[in-house]
From TrEMBL:
Keywords: Membrane, Transmembrane, Transmembrane helix. One of its GO terms (cellular component) is membrane. Belongs to the RUS1 family. The keyword Transmembrane applies. The chain crosses the membrane at residues 122-139, 145-162. InterPro entries: RUS_fam, UVB_sens_RUS_dom. It is found in: Membrane. This is Protein root UVB sensitive/RUS domain-containing protein. Residues 38-188 form the Protein root UVB sensitive/RUS domain. Pfam families: UVB_sens_prot.
């Protein structure tokens, strides 16, 4: 129901403007958080994790969009939440795409790889549009079938992206890969290969706290002995 004194068009424009404001604020704060509270740009050296996080949040945004008609009293909250998630997806997805494209440009052909990646994405979007136009009359009004197809496609999408991220063999060292190499050398004096290191690299957790030297308390206790 429209607010008293406002038409439905005014209320719709107000929601769009507020969504846009939320998107701008979240985008700026997300970039600030990632660059401020991490060593360097985490979107760069931990691009595999953030690539998968972007895919998960994107599917979560679609889930909220599908759920919002059933929550008529919370439609505004759902709309802002999905917009918030898509802001994070836009920043994380765009940044990690650049890092992955740079990794794939093996012959210093970054522009060529980027253009082919963009063309491939365009072709995928066109194919998805055609399939959507075919499926839309078949699933219209069938809520159970819509949710079933959404769950199936989301599962396939996330699994495919997980396998794609796992197939990347980064030849540079980040904190996780460097920690694995150091631990392997200290325990068995063996340095794992690039493939082994990337295969065993955890995506969503680190290796705990890191210490450089000893704590000041231990140093003072040692001097008192």
């Amino acid at each position: 129901m429209a607010r008293k004194g406002w038409s439905r068009n005014d209320w719709s424009n107000y929601i769009r403007l507020l969504q846009r404001q939320v998107q701008l604020v979240v985008t700026v704060n997300f970039v600030f958080f990632v660059t401020k509270y991490s060593t360097g740009s985490e979107l760069d050296y931990d691009c595999k994790k953030w690539r998968l996080v972007a895919d998960i949040l994107n599917d979560l945004a679609f889930f909220i969009d599908l759920l919002s008609p059933a929550l008529s009293g919370s439609f505004f909250v759902c709309a802002c939440t999905s917009s918030l998630l898509r802001c994070v997806v836009g920043v994380a997805g765009g940044a990690t795409r650049t890092a992955i494209t740079q990794h794939q440009a093996r012959r210093n052909n970054l522009a060529d790889v980027a253009s082919k990646d963009g063309s491939q994405e365009t072709m995928v979007n066109v194919t998805a549009l055609v399939v959507s136009l075919i499926m839309l009359p078949l699933v219209s009004g069938k809520h159970v079938l819509i949710w079933f197809l959404f769950m199936v496609f989301t599962t396939v999408h996330l699994y495919s992206n997980y396998r794609a991220v796992r197939s990347l063999n980064m030849e540079t060292l980040n904190l996780k890969r460097a920690t694995m190499i150091i631990r392997s050398w200290l325990s068995s004096e063996v340095i794992p290969s690039v493939g082994e290191c990337n295969k065993a690299e955890p995506l969503f957790y680190s290796f705990g706290k890191r210490y450089l030297g000893c704590s000041l308390r231990d140093l003072l206790q040692y001097q008192k002995r």
